[in-house]
Amino acid sequence: MGSYINPKIECYSGKYVLTNVYAPTSDKENLQIRLIDTLKDKLAIFEGENIIIGRDFNILLDQKLIKREVVVI
Questions:
Q1: Is the backbone of residue 68 left (phi > 0), alpha (psi -120 to 50) or beta?
Q2: Calpha distance 73→54 (Å, rounded)
Q3: Burial 24-36 (b: 16+ CB within 10 A, else e)
Q4: How crowded is residue 19: how many other Cβ atoms within 10 Å of its Cβ?
Q5: Per-residue pLDDT tens digits of the chain, which is 73 residues long
Q6: Whole-model pTM?
Q7: Closest CA to 17 of 29, 3, 7
Q8: How many CA atoms lie within 13 A of 63 on its CB side?
Q9: 26, 37 in Cβ contact below 8 A?
């Protein structure tokens, strides 16, 4: 269903919650939605804190942005 991790760190400039997300590919929309809902619930406990999200949501927001494979001969 994808994965995420939420370590909490403290450094000299403050406390941060680091989140890294790797979502299922775009052909698995239901799994993507479940992951985002789960992530939203998991991050709710950190409300008001500094949250940094690194991500690969594998979500295509604009069909025009689909990359085409280029074959060089």
A1: beta
A2: 36
A3: beeeeeeebeebb
A4: 19
A5: 555 566 677 777 788 888 888 878 777 888 888 888 888 898 898 888 888 888 777 766 666 666 665 555 5
A6: 0.58
A7: 7
A8: 0
A9: no
The residue among 16, 27, 26 whose CA lies nearest residue 56 is: 26
Half-sphere exposure of 42 (CA within 13 A, CB side): 19
Tokens describing residue 58: 């594998």
The residue assigned the tokens 């979502």 is 23
For residue 62, the number of C-alpha atoms closer than 13 Å in the C-beta half-sphere is 3
